[in-house]
Amino acid sequence: MTTILKTEGLRKVYHLGNFPRNIPVHALNDVNLNIESDEPVIISVVGESGSGKTTLAKVILRLVEPTSGKVTVQDRVVVGERGKGKPEKTEFLSTVQPIFQNPFEAFSRYRTVDSYLYETATRVKKLNKLGAIDAVEEALASVGLEYKDVRGKYPNQFSGGELQRVSIARALIPRPGIIVADEPVSMIDASRRMIIINLFLSLKQEYRTSILYITHDLATAYYISDYIAVMNHGSIVEFGKARQVLSDPQHAYTRLLLDSIPTTKKKWEREKE
Predict the structure, then answer these.
(1) Roughly what angle, to the nearest 10 degrees, separates helices 193-206 and 160-172?
(2) Which of 9-13, 165-169, 175-179, 191-195 comes out lowest in average pLDDT?
(3) What domain range includes position 25?
(4) What is the CATH number of the domain that holds 52?
(5) Do the domain assignments include residue 75?
(6) Across the chain, what does the average pLDDT equal?
């Protein structure tokens, strides 16, 4: 079995104010996760704003250094251990790729979007010019876009949904072991969100990559996930297979989240009364 993702004793403490009135804020509080599988999986981390889920994503992506603890991806420690065994940035990005919440912040308005894809293919994947163009074309085709429709265009020439698909294509180019997607549909028109969600499901199999899906939306988490971790105040309060967690929640906070989801079933029941 491959260790898809493992966090051990992961803590992140921020300090607000100056000495002597320094207030510690525990964004992550002893987070322990372990997902082992020989097949790619989608793991959702759900919770309200301020629960710590985005901090967890940033630590896994090495955008934030943890106070303590470590992260293992694809059987290799990538966060929390210094020295010889920790992969360098390029090697790390061939294993872990990000997709951010706002695609317009992921691309500079002064650069064409295809230049980012080409750079990923040459610098991370280490392909030559022809190989890089082939990889870019293949990745764009996988998300329903054509290279000729993307080439030479700037971010403001795309809709939010289109640009997020370009972000996904960019993440796919190195064929990473895991993609960390932080609220990837929250900035997209509601009518188009399921396009991205269904895309993740198909790409999981096509590219054999696992996905860490950070979200506050339990409905999409239930639809897309193999596993769900529920976070509250920097801690994981419940974790398990998605259907088990959401059909038979054991923690009061998980039940509270589920009760907050509006359902058509309840509406129909009220109409019958």
Answers:
(1) 10
(2) 191-195
(3) 2-95+176-272
(4) 3.40.50.300
(5) yes
(6) 89
